[in-house]
Design brief:
alpha+beta; five-stranded mixed sheet; Rossmann fold; D-amino Acid Aminotransferase, Chain A, domain 1
Length: about 350
């Protein structure tokens, strides 16, 4: 019997287009003999639209943008999008191919929990904590994971005392430093700063995308990433290194220009790999992650491994780092998707044994 897989993509997020490209790649990779594919598109207004079942790969991203013929409000989603006309569930598992706020931050995960539907990837806590870089780093600090120095501010703090905020940054971190929206991925809104003029511009840029920003100390180090897969017993892929041709790995370098180099496997020692993989699993468990995570590190010349962040829904096209790392570890893209489906079902079944009455 085929597994009925609901693909949830698009989203009210700056990473809407990234999500569409991911959905296109997943649809192409899925074995249509094993899966029934049920697409659910969230447009940029946040409206949910259910498309017809897909029986073959889709050729263009534009074909995944459905018309507003079956739009549903959130209050009716469970009956109109995840159930058939006779009240039965129309999907066995949901794959939320959503990046950024309103998709990767625990909001959709919470909704799927309320519907008691199995879904791929991290749960509410890991998703929300992993989305907020400040909360994530605070948890890592509590877990004893080494990191670069960082400070954070909300928009009202900055508006009320800009000069004081900038002086705090200079005192705590110095230059160069990086300013980032706290709750956004895919390198959107990130700026490198080497003086106060650039710092001011960077704050203005980052606050367009979030009400909270994080500022991190600049370090001279290699950027090395490891993919983690599993639930209670997570496994690590080989390591990969990002070699940006620009000052840093920004959105254009990541998705548009291809202006970056990926070295897989990374040219590191066995000792360095063991250290990174140990810390990747520690980070995974500290956030109570499940399914998948990409753990990003700074590796210094003296062998010090500092965790930068984890991405709880990493880029997932075949040329994204997460699938590439597993490909070089011996797991091809279609196998990876199937493994994630299995992990989602396993986690859901475990949750069903939890008692909610006594």
């Amino acid at each position: 019997m085929k597994i009925k897989l609901g693909l949830l993509y698009g989203g009210k997020s700056a990473e809407h287009q990234v999500s569409l490209r991911t959905a296109l790649a997943v649809i192409e990779a899925l074995d249509h003999e094993k899966f029934e594919i049920h697409p659910i598109y969230i447009n940029e207004k946040g409206e949910w639209i259910k498309g017809s079942q897909l029986t073959e790969p889709v050729e263009r991203v534009e074909d995944l943008k459905f018309s507003q013929t079956e739009t549903s409000s959130s209050t009716a989603l469970s009956s109109t999008l995840f159930q058939t006309s006779d009240g039965k569930e129309s999907v066995d598992v949901v794959f939320p191919l959503l990046h950024g706020p309103n998709g990767e931050d625990g909001t959709v995960q919470g909704f799927l929990e309320l519907l008691n539907l199995p879904y791929i990837g991290n749960g509410v806590l890991a998703s929300s904590a992993g989305m907020d870089k400040v909360i994530m780093k605070d948890i890592f600090a509590h877990a004893g994971l080494e990191q670069v120095k960082y400070v954070s501010f909300i928009k009202s703090e900055w508006k009320d005392a800009q000069e004081s905020v900038y002086k705090q940054v200079e005192s705590a971190l110095g230059y160069p430093c990086f300013v980032k929206p706290a709750n956004l991925g895919s390198s959107v809104g990130i700026s490198k700063c080497t003086n106060m003029t650039e710092l001011d511009k960077a704050f203005q840029e980052a606050f367009q995308f979030d009400r909270k920003v994080i500022i991190e100390e600049g370090v001279t180090a290699r950027e090395v990433e490891i993919a983690v897969l599993g639930n209670d017993d997570p496994k690590c892929s080989v390591a990969g290194e990002i070699v940006p041709k620009k000052d840093f790995y920004d959105y254009k370098a990541k998705y548009e220009d291809g202006d970056t180099g990926l070295i897989i496997p990374a040219e590191i020692t066995e000792e360095e790999y063991n250290l990174l993989s140990e810390k990747a699993v520690q980070a995974f468990k500290s956030l109570d992650c499940s399914g998948l995570v990409r753990a990003d590190f700074f590796l210094t010349k003296d062998g010090k491994a500092m965790i930068n962040e984890v991405n709880t829904m990493p880029g997932f096209t075949p040329v994204s780092m997460f699938p590439l790392l597993w490909k070089h570890t011996g797991m091809e893209y279609p196998q990876l998707i199937e493994r994630l489906v299995q992990l989602a079902i396993e986690r859901h079944e475990e949750k069903q044994s939890i008692k909610y009455t006594f």
